[in-house]
Amino acid sequence: MDLLNYAFMQRALLAALLVGVTAPAVGTFLVQRRQAIMGDGIGHVALTGVALGFLLQVSPVWTAVAVSVAGAIGMELIRSYGKARGDIALAMLFYGGMSGGVMIIYLAPNGSNANLTTYLFGSISTVSPQDIPPMIALAAFVLLVVLGLRRHLFAVCQDEEFAHVGGLPVRALNLLLAVTAAVTVTVAMRAVGLLLVSALMVIPVAAAQQVTRGFAWTLAVAVAIGVTVALSGTVFSYYVDVPPGSSIVLASMGVFLIFAAAAGRLRAAGWHNGGVRARRPS
Amino acid sequence: MTDTVAALRGASASLGARQVLHGVDLAVARGEVVALLGANGSGKSTAVRAVVGRVRLSAGTWELFGTPGDRFRQWARIGYVPQRTTAAGGVPATVREVVAAGRLARTGLRPPRRADKAAVARAIDLVGMADRASDAVDALSGGQHQRVLIARALATEPDLLIMDEPMAGVDLAAQRVLAETVRAQVAAGVTVLLVLHELGPLAPLIDRAVLLRDGRVAHDGPPPGGLEPDHVHPHADPAAVPVKGHLDRWTS
Fold first, then answer.
1. Which of A94, A222, B157, B171 could cross-link to A205 by cystine, CB 3.0-4.6 Å?
2. If residue B191 lies in a helix (H) or strand (E), which one and from where to where?
């Protein structure tokens, strides 16, 4: 494994590991709430944040965090107030984020087409040493929230009406989940890119639930799949010069197809409800 | 100390542009089993959701355990069974995971202790689903799913059980199982407020029926058929055959 001798590759693999853990972990809650598309929206909005970083000549990670958190809170408020035209409002937010990002990046002093592509589809060679500490800190925040509050987030995502009457701070938990999803997008943008980050939030979860029947197990299997495809996709991109986002997402699609086929075989053999024995989320 | 555990006083509420409740008075005393009846659109679901603070009143007040609703914080005392959600979550969840969500009202932010896990297991046992605790809820029948939602409400060990159409879409055999679960709770002193479309196997348990018509209380008193000689009291032999509710005749 000579690729581990390169410092840039070590950083790329660490970034992939962080993404592989955090994206499916947050994604499990988003998929549970049938908001699989939310990561996509945040990714679009985050592009404006990245572009602002270039324009202001500061680290794009922090401007991306700021803008995507604001965008995610906006999306959550639109969702929770259930405006009749909520879908249009969300779509406008996505388009605005994407077009604003593209325009600002071309106006920025050292912005360029090449820069844009690395943020949209990921890049293994551009994870700088300065990127690593914030990525670790942000990933730690994400894991702290989704693991520490998993029972509460589960309850809110599963049945909001019941959670309210149980006295849970539903609004606060929903906003926290939205903020966590936004932070995950910025953790992921280096490794898989803003256009493909949502795939890593959704596909491992979809693959995992082919073989699970409980929430805790779905979360665990999704994270295992996420780590596997993020690392293997990054390694693939080392040998074959393609953006890692594309290889990671295609790898997760492959895992999904294998799991779906296996689950189909098992069901045909009379094995009901999937395989992995479910346990309580504790 | 008051004996009224849940009350709406002069409650009016609107859903969108339509006013659904027009000055509804509803009081549930400790230990009572009250059925809220009415045709579709009569406002019975809205009334029960107003009792738990899920519908904002445009006029009137609501109280839980003698505390004005807006200041009420002891949510763990209430076991709530909302209308069975048609959309299960996008991710599978086991019976135990769903029921454990009901215990959060007691645990708050602290991790669950042994007593909490025992309470969850007991609630699952009470509805007769212990052998399905590790199964996915979306693999269950309508009646079994409803039992899981009741177990979730019981996991908090409530003083007041509020159920919105617990028998909807449940076959008669499963309705009897649910009725037996409710009967045991009533026997243990739990107060019950439930929305029903028809009395069914629950009829012998009901102390009082409140009939809503167009968002107003049209009747508040003994349940229809409640004075019939074969009326079975909550504390009577559980094997006694329940009377059939005559709601259709009563409401028309």
1. A222
2. strand B191-195
Domains of chain B (ranges; CATH) run 4-251 (3.40.50.300)
Residue among A12, A75, A11 nearest A40 (CA): A75
Q: Shortest CB distance from B54 goes to which of A154, A161, A213?
A: A161
Contact A210, A257 (CB under 8 A): no
Q: What top-level class would CATH report for the domain A2-195?
A: mainly alpha
Per-residue tokens: A38: 């939310």
* Interface with chain B: mutation pick from A165, A168, A276, highest number of B CBs within 10 Å: A165
Interface predicted TM-score of the whole assembly (ipTM), two decimals: 0.87
Question: Which two tokens mark B224?
Answer: 């229809």
CA dist A180 and B196 (Å) reads: 41
Do A27 and A215 contact (CB within 8 A), yes or no? no
pTM of the model: 0.88
Question: B-chain residues within 8 Å CB-CB of A27?
Answer: none
Give the count of alpha carbons within 13 A of A47, CB side only: 33
Does A260 contact B at CB distance below 8 Å?
Answer: no
Tens-place pLDDT, residues B183-229: 999 999 999 999 998 888 888 899 999 999 999 999 898 887 644 44
A158/B54 touch (CB, cutoff 8 Å), yes or no: no
| Three-class secondary structure of residue A275 per DSSP | coil
At B2 the pLDDT is: 54
